[in-house]
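Archive record:
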Amino acid sequence: MALSKLPPKNRLLAKLPAQSYEHFLSQLEEVELPIGKILYHPKQRIDYVYFPSKSAVSMVNIFENGTTVEVGLVGSDGVVGVSILSGDDVTQHQAIVQMAGGGWRMKASEFMTTLETNPELANVVRRFSQALFIQVAQTAACNRLHTIVQRLARWLLLCQDRMESDTLNLTHESLSTMLGARRAGVTLAAGTLQNSGLIKYRRGSITILNRKKLEQASCECHGIVKAEYERLLGRPV
């Protein structure tokens, strides 16, 4: 089957040879991923893995007092549910669609079986898993050390990289949840970036106006994570 007829817009799958794509066609199920849809709850078994296309899924930790904070973000760069590679099929975080779009899902059992028989996929998935681990570790450090303005700039860049769009459908409420910060603090940080001409904020939507200056406003964490993704997975086309 021609490469152009196979599932597009997921850069992890796009790295596979045509034969591997063809093998996936019979196992992938196309799904809609509306904003707010919860793919996994904490302590829930992972029955499916998801390959987002024009969507982004947040991995969120929920604390006993109800506080939430994002620890990782997966978009068209990879696969949601990759933690099953460790041999544990129970997730410790919530996976929630942060930006709506489409994608594909595959039964976790079939995914693991395919990894055993498809060395190209296994290699790409392992490298993605390492890149995601680096993102999660860097996010933890960033949340501890850097200002809300820096963290917001980093997160917007992270989203733009995965959505491949300058306009992101986000509310201040969702941003405060993802950054683990008070909504008032996020509003002030977004105002700072907007007043500097870096972004434009309208109700439910943020448009990045100046990527280069937004990178300068961010901490070094975005650059570190981006460089590691490119080292492990190559530059996106």
